[in-house]
Design goal:
single chain; about 425 residues; alpha/beta; Rossmann fold; Four Helix Bundle (Hemerythrin (Met), subunit A); 4-stranded parallel sheet; 4-stranded antiparallel sheet
Length: about 425
Protein backbone atom coordinates (compact mmCIF):
# COMPACT_ATOMS: atom_id res chain seq x y z
CA UNK A 1 0.00 0.00 0.00
CA UNK A 2 1.08 3.54 -0.77
CA UNK A 3 0.14 6.52 1.41
CA UNK A 4 0.84 10.13 0.50
CA UNK A 5 3.16 11.60 3.11
CA UNK A 6 3.90 15.10 4.30
CA UNK A 7 5.48 18.10 2.64
CA UNK A 8 8.13 18.82 5.28
CA UNK A 9 8.19 22.59 5.56
CA UNK A 10 6.92 22.85 9.16
CA UNK A 11 6.27 20.70 12.22
CA UNK A 12 3.76 17.92 11.74
CA UNK A 13 0.31 18.52 13.23
CA UNK A 14 -2.66 16.51 14.40
CA UNK A 15 -4.09 16.26 10.89
CA UNK A 16 -0.91 14.53 9.71
CA UNK A 17 -1.05 12.27 12.76
CA UNK A 18 -4.61 11.17 12.05
CA UNK A 19 -3.73 10.06 8.53
CA UNK A 20 -0.54 8.31 9.62
CA UNK A 21 -2.11 6.56 12.62
CA UNK A 22 -5.08 5.36 10.58
CA UNK A 23 -2.95 3.80 7.86
CA UNK A 24 -0.73 2.29 10.54
CA UNK A 25 -3.92 0.63 11.83
CA UNK A 26 -4.72 -0.66 8.32
CA UNK A 27 -1.25 -2.16 8.13
CA UNK A 28 -1.56 -3.75 11.58
CA UNK A 29 -4.96 -5.27 10.76
CA UNK A 30 -3.62 -6.95 7.63
CA UNK A 31 -0.54 -8.17 9.47
CA UNK A 32 -2.69 -9.61 12.26
CA UNK A 33 -4.66 -11.49 9.61
CA UNK A 34 -1.45 -13.05 8.33
CA UNK A 35 -0.63 -10.84 5.35
CA UNK A 36 2.81 -9.50 4.54
CA UNK A 37 2.46 -5.76 3.98
CA UNK A 38 4.79 -3.61 1.89
CA UNK A 39 4.05 -0.07 3.01
CA UNK A 40 5.37 2.99 1.18
CA UNK A 41 4.99 6.51 2.58
CA UNK A 42 6.73 9.30 0.72
CA UNK A 43 8.08 12.73 1.55
CA UNK A 44 7.54 15.60 -0.89
CA UNK A 45 10.86 17.28 -0.13
CA UNK A 46 10.81 19.78 -3.01
CA UNK A 47 7.81 22.06 -3.28
CA UNK A 48 6.84 25.74 -3.52
CA UNK A 49 6.21 25.93 0.25
CA UNK A 50 9.59 24.39 1.05
CA UNK A 51 11.37 26.75 -1.33
CA UNK A 52 9.59 29.77 0.16
CA UNK A 53 10.21 28.77 3.79
CA UNK A 54 13.87 27.90 3.13
CA UNK A 55 14.36 31.29 1.50
CA UNK A 56 12.78 33.03 4.52
CA UNK A 57 15.04 31.07 6.86
CA UNK A 58 18.10 31.61 4.66
CA UNK A 59 18.84 27.89 4.60
CA UNK A 60 18.83 25.18 1.97
CA UNK A 61 15.69 23.28 1.03
CA UNK A 62 17.50 20.07 1.96
CA UNK A 63 18.31 21.31 5.47
CA UNK A 64 14.73 22.47 6.05
CA UNK A 65 13.19 19.23 4.77
CA UNK A 66 15.59 17.06 6.78
CA UNK A 67 14.68 18.86 10.00
CA UNK A 68 10.95 18.39 9.58
CA UNK A 69 11.27 14.81 8.35
CA UNK A 70 13.16 14.07 11.57
CA UNK A 71 10.37 15.80 13.50
CA UNK A 72 7.81 13.61 11.73
CA UNK A 73 9.62 10.39 12.60
CA UNK A 74 10.06 11.53 16.20
CA UNK A 75 6.36 12.37 16.75
CA UNK A 76 5.01 9.37 14.85
CA UNK A 77 7.43 7.09 16.69
CA UNK A 78 6.02 8.41 19.96
CA UNK A 79 2.54 7.50 18.68
CA UNK A 80 3.76 3.92 18.16
CA UNK A 81 3.52 4.15 14.38
CA UNK A 82 5.47 1.36 12.69
CA UNK A 83 7.99 2.81 10.26
CA UNK A 84 7.02 2.26 6.64
CA UNK A 85 8.84 -0.37 4.60
CA UNK A 86 10.03 2.39 2.28
CA UNK A 87 10.08 6.15 2.90
CA UNK A 88 11.24 7.60 -0.44
CA UNK A 89 11.86 11.28 -1.07
CA UNK A 90 11.14 13.09 -4.31
CA UNK A 91 14.72 14.34 -4.61
CA UNK A 92 15.98 10.74 -4.51
CA UNK A 93 13.86 9.77 -7.51
CA UNK A 94 14.44 12.50 -10.09
CA UNK A 95 15.87 10.19 -12.82
CA UNK A 96 12.85 7.89 -12.54
CA UNK A 97 10.48 10.89 -12.64
CA UNK A 98 12.15 12.27 -15.78
CA UNK A 99 11.96 8.85 -17.45
CA UNK A 100 8.27 8.51 -16.53
CA UNK A 101 7.41 11.96 -17.92
CA UNK A 102 9.37 11.26 -21.08
CA UNK A 103 7.27 8.12 -21.58
CA UNK A 104 4.10 10.23 -21.42
CA UNK A 105 5.53 12.75 -23.88
CA UNK A 106 6.52 9.96 -26.26
CA UNK A 107 3.07 8.32 -26.23
CA UNK A 108 1.32 11.64 -26.81
CA UNK A 109 -0.47 12.06 -23.47
CA UNK A 110 1.83 14.91 -22.41
CA UNK A 111 3.22 17.91 -24.27
CA UNK A 112 6.12 20.34 -23.87
CA UNK A 113 5.72 24.12 -23.61
CA UNK A 114 8.94 26.14 -23.43
CA UNK A 115 10.57 23.91 -20.81
CA UNK A 116 7.36 22.99 -18.97
CA UNK A 117 5.61 19.65 -19.52
CA UNK A 118 1.84 19.24 -19.13
CA UNK A 119 -0.41 16.21 -19.02
CA UNK A 120 -3.26 16.34 -21.52
CA UNK A 121 -6.31 15.46 -19.43
CA UNK A 122 -8.63 14.89 -22.40
CA UNK A 123 -6.30 12.15 -23.66
CA UNK A 124 -7.39 10.06 -20.65
CA UNK A 125 -11.00 9.02 -21.16
CA UNK A 126 -11.54 7.92 -17.53
CA UNK A 127 -10.49 11.23 -16.02
CA UNK A 128 -12.77 11.96 -13.06
CA UNK A 129 -13.56 8.33 -12.20
CA UNK A 130 -12.20 8.57 -8.63
CA UNK A 131 -13.75 11.91 -7.66
CA UNK A 132 -16.83 11.20 -9.81
CA UNK A 133 -16.65 14.62 -11.45
CA UNK A 134 -17.35 15.58 -15.02
CA UNK A 135 -14.86 17.58 -17.04
CA UNK A 136 -17.26 20.51 -17.27
CA UNK A 137 -17.72 20.68 -13.49
CA UNK A 138 -13.96 20.46 -12.99
CA UNK A 139 -13.32 23.38 -15.31
CA UNK A 140 -15.83 25.44 -13.36
CA UNK A 141 -14.57 24.60 -9.87
CA UNK A 142 -11.13 22.99 -9.93
CA UNK A 143 -7.92 24.47 -8.66
CA UNK A 144 -5.96 24.75 -11.91
CA UNK A 145 -2.74 26.49 -12.85
CA UNK A 146 -3.31 29.81 -14.57
CA UNK A 147 -1.34 29.42 -17.78
CA UNK A 148 -2.92 30.59 -21.03
CA UNK A 149 -0.44 28.52 -23.03
CA UNK A 150 -2.04 25.24 -21.94
CA UNK A 151 -4.09 23.29 -24.46
CA UNK A 152 -6.85 22.86 -21.85
CA UNK A 153 -7.44 24.60 -18.50
CA UNK A 154 -7.44 21.23 -16.69
CA UNK A 155 -4.05 20.12 -17.99
CA UNK A 156 -1.61 19.87 -15.10
CA UNK A 157 2.15 20.27 -14.79
CA UNK A 158 4.41 17.23 -14.85
CA UNK A 159 7.63 19.23 -15.07
CA UNK A 160 8.22 22.89 -14.18
CA UNK A 161 10.89 24.98 -15.84
CA UNK A 162 13.40 26.22 -13.27
CA UNK A 163 13.30 29.72 -11.86
CA UNK A 164 16.25 31.65 -10.54
CA UNK A 165 17.34 30.48 -7.10
CA UNK A 166 15.17 27.37 -7.06
CA UNK A 167 16.42 23.77 -6.90
CA UNK A 168 16.54 22.24 -10.37
CA UNK A 169 17.62 19.12 -12.23
CA UNK A 170 18.55 18.35 -15.80
CA UNK A 171 15.93 16.94 -18.17
CA UNK A 172 15.32 16.60 -21.92
CA UNK A 173 13.21 19.77 -21.66
CA UNK A 174 15.80 21.82 -19.77
CA UNK A 175 16.53 22.50 -16.11
CA UNK A 176 13.51 22.18 -13.85
CA UNK A 177 11.77 20.20 -11.12
CA UNK A 178 8.83 17.79 -10.95
CA UNK A 179 5.21 18.76 -10.58
CA UNK A 180 3.46 17.55 -7.42
CA UNK A 181 1.28 14.78 -8.86
CA UNK A 182 3.87 12.91 -10.91
CA UNK A 183 6.07 12.29 -7.89
CA UNK A 184 3.68 9.90 -6.14
CA UNK A 185 2.93 7.92 -9.31
CA UNK A 186 6.61 7.31 -9.86
CA UNK A 187 7.45 6.35 -6.29
CA UNK A 188 4.39 4.09 -5.93
CA UNK A 189 5.15 2.20 -9.14
CA UNK A 190 8.87 2.01 -8.36
CA UNK A 191 8.30 0.21 -5.06
CA UNK A 192 4.98 -1.56 -5.61
CA UNK A 193 4.71 -2.20 -9.34
CA UNK A 194 2.37 -0.92 -12.04
CA UNK A 195 -0.69 -2.19 -10.12
CA UNK A 196 -0.91 -2.56 -6.36
CA UNK A 197 -3.54 -3.08 -3.69
CA UNK A 198 -4.22 0.08 -1.66
CA UNK A 199 -3.55 3.79 -2.12
CA UNK A 200 -4.43 6.21 0.65
CA UNK A 201 -4.25 9.72 2.00
CA UNK A 202 -6.40 12.52 3.35
CA UNK A 203 -9.75 13.20 1.69
CA UNK A 204 -8.49 16.56 0.43
CA UNK A 205 -6.18 14.63 -1.93
CA UNK A 206 -8.99 12.92 -3.87
CA UNK A 207 -9.08 15.81 -6.33
CA UNK A 208 -6.92 16.83 -7.98
CA UNK A 209 -3.94 14.89 -6.60
CA UNK A 210 -5.19 11.31 -6.66
CA UNK A 211 -7.26 11.87 -9.77
CA UNK A 212 -4.15 13.09 -11.53
CA UNK A 213 -2.09 10.18 -10.21
CA UNK A 214 -4.52 7.75 -11.81
CA UNK A 215 -4.52 9.62 -15.12
CA UNK A 216 -0.76 9.83 -15.53
CA UNK A 217 -0.07 6.32 -14.18
CA UNK A 218 -2.67 4.53 -16.29
CA UNK A 219 -1.86 6.84 -19.18
CA UNK A 220 1.62 5.31 -19.23
CA UNK A 221 1.12 1.72 -18.06
CA UNK A 222 -2.41 1.11 -19.45
CA UNK A 223 -3.09 -0.95 -16.33
CA UNK A 224 -5.26 -0.27 -13.25
CA UNK A 225 -3.18 1.80 -10.82
CA UNK A 226 -4.55 0.91 -7.34
CA UNK A 227 -7.19 -1.64 -6.41
CA UNK A 228 -8.65 0.32 -3.48
CA UNK A 229 -8.55 3.96 -2.44
CA UNK A 230 -8.89 4.93 1.24
CA UNK A 231 -9.25 8.54 2.40
CA UNK A 232 -9.38 9.65 6.01
CA UNK A 233 -11.55 12.56 7.11
CA UNK A 234 -10.27 15.88 8.37
CA UNK A 235 -9.36 16.82 11.89
CA UNK A 236 -11.49 19.89 12.62
CA UNK A 237 -11.42 22.66 15.19
CA UNK A 238 -14.88 24.01 15.87
CA UNK A 239 -15.94 22.02 12.78
CA UNK A 240 -13.47 23.83 10.52
CA UNK A 241 -10.65 21.88 8.85
CA UNK A 242 -7.37 22.01 10.75
CA UNK A 243 -4.62 23.23 8.45
CA UNK A 244 -1.49 25.33 8.42
CA UNK A 245 -3.00 27.74 5.90
CA UNK A 246 -5.90 28.53 8.26
CA UNK A 247 -3.57 28.93 11.23
CA UNK A 248 -5.75 26.74 13.47
CA UNK A 249 -3.47 23.73 13.63
CA UNK A 250 -1.86 22.18 16.69
CA UNK A 251 1.58 20.65 16.33
CA UNK A 252 2.25 17.19 17.67
CA UNK A 253 5.04 18.64 19.77
CA UNK A 254 2.51 20.85 21.56
CA UNK A 255 -0.06 18.09 22.02
CA UNK A 256 2.42 15.45 23.19
CA UNK A 257 3.79 17.87 25.77
CA UNK A 258 0.34 17.86 27.42
CA UNK A 259 -0.98 14.33 26.81
CA UNK A 260 0.69 10.95 26.81
CA UNK A 261 1.13 9.45 23.36
CA UNK A 262 -1.21 6.43 23.89
CA UNK A 263 -3.98 8.86 24.88
CA UNK A 264 -3.51 10.86 21.68
CA UNK A 265 -3.51 7.68 19.60
CA UNK A 266 -6.69 6.51 21.34
CA UNK A 267 -8.29 9.86 20.53
CA UNK A 268 -7.29 9.61 16.87
CA UNK A 269 -8.92 6.17 16.60
CA UNK A 270 -12.05 7.15 18.51
CA UNK A 271 -14.02 8.00 15.35
CA UNK A 272 -14.45 6.08 12.10
CA UNK A 273 -11.66 7.15 9.80
CA UNK A 274 -13.93 8.66 7.14
CA UNK A 275 -15.75 10.86 9.67
CA UNK A 276 -14.45 14.27 10.72
CA UNK A 277 -12.67 14.26 14.07
CA UNK A 278 -13.27 17.44 16.04
CA UNK A 279 -10.41 18.53 18.27
CA UNK A 280 -10.59 20.06 21.73
CA UNK A 281 -8.82 19.72 25.06
CA UNK A 282 -12.05 18.37 26.55
CA UNK A 283 -12.23 15.55 24.00
CA UNK A 284 -8.59 14.67 24.61
CA UNK A 285 -9.29 14.64 28.34
CA UNK A 286 -12.15 12.22 27.72
CA UNK A 287 -9.68 9.95 25.93
CA UNK A 288 -7.30 10.39 28.84
CA UNK A 289 -9.98 9.23 31.29
CA UNK A 290 -10.87 6.29 29.04
CA UNK A 291 -7.23 5.26 28.73
CA UNK A 292 -6.80 5.37 32.50
CA UNK A 293 -9.61 2.83 32.93
CA UNK A 294 -7.73 0.46 30.59
CA UNK A 295 -4.44 1.05 32.37
CA UNK A 296 -6.03 0.46 35.77
CA UNK A 297 -7.40 -2.95 34.86
CA UNK A 298 -4.07 -3.94 33.26
CA UNK A 299 -2.30 -2.99 36.50
CA UNK A 300 -4.69 -4.95 38.69
CA UNK A 301 -4.40 -8.08 36.55
CA UNK A 302 -0.61 -7.81 36.46
CA UNK A 303 -0.54 -7.59 40.23
CA UNK A 304 -2.86 -10.58 40.64
CA UNK A 305 -0.67 -12.62 38.28
CA UNK A 306 2.43 -11.77 40.35
CA UNK A 307 3.90 -9.94 37.38
CA UNK A 308 3.76 -12.97 35.09
CA UNK A 309 1.49 -11.70 32.31
CA UNK A 310 3.01 -13.97 29.68
CA UNK A 311 1.16 -16.92 28.21
CA UNK A 312 -2.57 -17.06 27.93
CA UNK A 313 -4.64 -17.30 24.75
CA UNK A 314 -6.74 -14.73 22.95
CA UNK A 315 -10.39 -15.28 23.86
CA UNK A 316 -12.06 -16.41 20.63
CA UNK A 317 -15.41 -14.77 21.33
CA UNK A 318 -13.79 -11.38 21.77
CA UNK A 319 -11.42 -11.83 18.86
CA UNK A 320 -14.34 -12.53 16.54
CA UNK A 321 -16.13 -9.36 17.65
CA UNK A 322 -13.04 -7.22 17.38
CA UNK A 323 -11.88 -8.51 13.99
CA UNK A 324 -15.42 -8.28 12.59
CA UNK A 325 -15.54 -4.53 13.24
CA UNK A 326 -12.08 -3.90 11.80
CA UNK A 327 -12.92 -6.05 8.78
CA UNK A 328 -15.89 -3.78 8.11
CA UNK A 329 -14.06 -0.76 6.67
CA UNK A 330 -11.59 -0.57 9.57
CA UNK A 331 -14.16 0.63 12.09
CA UNK A 332 -11.88 1.54 14.98
CA UNK A 333 -14.71 3.33 16.80
CA UNK A 334 -16.72 0.12 17.21
CA UNK A 335 -13.58 -1.95 17.83
CA UNK A 336 -12.73 0.35 20.73
CA UNK A 337 -16.20 -0.17 22.16
CA UNK A 338 -15.44 -3.90 22.32
CA UNK A 339 -12.11 -3.15 24.00
CA UNK A 340 -13.87 -1.29 26.80
CA UNK A 341 -16.51 -4.02 27.08
CA UNK A 342 -13.68 -6.52 27.49
CA UNK A 343 -12.31 -4.35 30.28
CA UNK A 344 -15.70 -4.58 32.03
CA UNK A 345 -15.68 -8.36 31.72
CA UNK A 346 -12.19 -8.56 33.25
CA UNK A 347 -13.35 -6.45 36.21
CA UNK A 348 -16.39 -8.70 36.58
CA UNK A 349 -14.15 -11.76 36.68
CA UNK A 350 -12.06 -10.10 39.41
CA UNK A 351 -15.24 -9.53 41.44
CA UNK A 352 -16.18 -13.20 40.94
CA UNK A 353 -12.65 -14.28 41.95
CA UNK A 354 -12.18 -16.15 38.66
CA UNK A 355 -8.40 -15.93 38.69
CA UNK A 356 -8.01 -18.68 36.09
CA UNK A 357 -9.57 -16.35 33.50
CA UNK A 358 -7.10 -13.53 34.00
CA UNK A 359 -4.19 -14.67 31.80
CA UNK A 360 -6.48 -15.12 28.80
CA UNK A 361 -8.24 -11.85 29.56
CA UNK A 362 -4.94 -9.98 29.78
CA UNK A 363 -3.63 -11.64 26.59
CA UNK A 364 -6.78 -10.54 24.74
CA UNK A 365 -6.57 -6.98 26.09
CA UNK A 366 -2.89 -6.80 25.22
CA UNK A 367 -3.44 -8.14 21.68
CA UNK A 368 -6.26 -5.76 20.86
CA UNK A 369 -4.71 -2.66 22.40
CA UNK A 370 -1.02 -3.10 21.64
CA UNK A 371 -0.72 -5.33 18.62
CA UNK A 372 -3.67 -4.18 16.52
CA UNK A 373 -4.75 -0.71 17.66
CA UNK A 374 -1.20 0.22 18.60
CA UNK A 375 -2.37 1.87 21.84
CA UNK A 376 0.46 1.02 24.21
CA UNK A 377 -0.90 -0.67 27.31
CA UNK A 378 1.27 -2.53 29.81
CA UNK A 379 0.79 -3.46 33.44
CA UNK A 380 3.10 -1.43 35.64
CA UNK A 381 3.26 -4.49 37.88
CA UNK A 382 4.98 -6.88 35.52
CA UNK A 383 7.79 -8.10 37.78
CA UNK A 384 8.33 -9.29 41.36
CA UNK A 385 10.64 -6.34 41.97
CA UNK A 386 7.86 -3.85 41.24
CA UNK A 387 5.23 -5.81 43.13
CA UNK A 388 7.07 -6.67 46.37
CA UNK A 389 7.30 -3.16 47.94
CA UNK A 390 3.69 -2.38 46.98
CA UNK A 391 2.47 -5.67 48.38
CA UNK A 392 4.28 -4.97 51.65
CA UNK A 393 2.55 -1.59 51.90
CA UNK A 394 -0.85 -3.06 51.14
CA UNK A 395 -0.35 -5.75 53.79
CA UNK A 396 0.57 -3.06 56.29
CA UNK A 397 -2.57 -1.16 55.34
CA UNK A 398 -4.70 -4.26 55.85
CA UNK A 399 -3.18 -4.76 59.30
CA UNK A 400 -4.03 -1.17 60.18
CA UNK A 401 -7.61 -1.64 59.01
CA UNK A 402 -7.89 -4.92 60.90
CA UNK A 403 -6.79 -3.13 64.04
CA UNK A 404 -9.08 -0.19 63.28
CA UNK A 405 -6.05 2.07 62.88
CA UNK A 406 -7.78 4.21 60.31
CA UNK A 407 -5.21 7.01 60.41
CA UNK A 408 -2.42 4.51 59.74
CA UNK A 409 -4.33 2.98 56.84
CA UNK A 410 -4.97 6.46 55.43
CA UNK A 411 -1.31 7.37 55.81
CA UNK A 412 -0.23 4.34 53.76
CA UNK A 413 -2.85 5.13 51.12
CA UNK A 414 -1.46 8.65 50.83
CA UNK A 415 2.13 7.37 50.65
CA UNK A 416 1.20 5.12 47.73
CA UNK A 417 -0.78 7.91 46.09
CA UNK A 418 2.25 10.20 46.29
CA UNK A 419 4.21 7.63 44.29
CA UNK A 420 1.42 7.47 41.69
CA UNK A 421 -0.34 4.33 42.95
CA UNK A 422 -4.04 4.22 43.79
CA UNK A 423 -5.82 1.41 45.65
CA UNK A 424 -8.91 -0.46 44.47
CA UNK A 425 -10.59 -2.58 47.13
CA UNK A 426 -11.96 -5.74 45.48
CA UNK A 427 -13.26 -9.19 46.54
CA UNK A 428 -9.70 -10.41 45.87
CA UNK A 429 -8.34 -7.83 48.28
CA UNK A 430 -6.81 -4.38 47.72
CA UNK A 431 -5.24 -4.02 44.27
CA UNK A 432 -2.90 -1.27 43.06
CA UNK A 433 -3.50 0.73 39.90
CA UNK A 434 -1.70 3.63 38.30
CA UNK A 435 -4.17 4.94 35.72
Amino acid sequence: MYVCGITPYDECHLGHARCTVFFDLVRRVFQYMGHEVTYVQNFTDVDDKIIQRASQNKESCESLANRYIEDFFLRMGALNVLKATHTPRVTENIPEIVQFIDGLVQNGTAYVLEGDVYYSVRKFSDYGKLSKRTLDSMIAGARVDVDPRKQDPLDFALWKKSKSGEPSWASPWGEGRPGWHIECSVMAIKYLGKSFDIHGGGQDLIFPHHENEIAQSEGLTHRPFAGYWLHNGFVTVNREKMSKSLGNFFTMREILSQFKAPIVRLFLLSRHYRSPLDFSDDLLKQSESAYKTLQEVADMVGYLLDGDCSGGEVLKEWEDKFVQELSDDFNSEKALAHLFNLRKEILEKIKLKEVAYLKNGYKTLDTFANQILGVELRSHFDSAEKIKPVRTKLQEREECRKNKDWSGADRIRKELQTSGILIEDTPLGPLPKTG
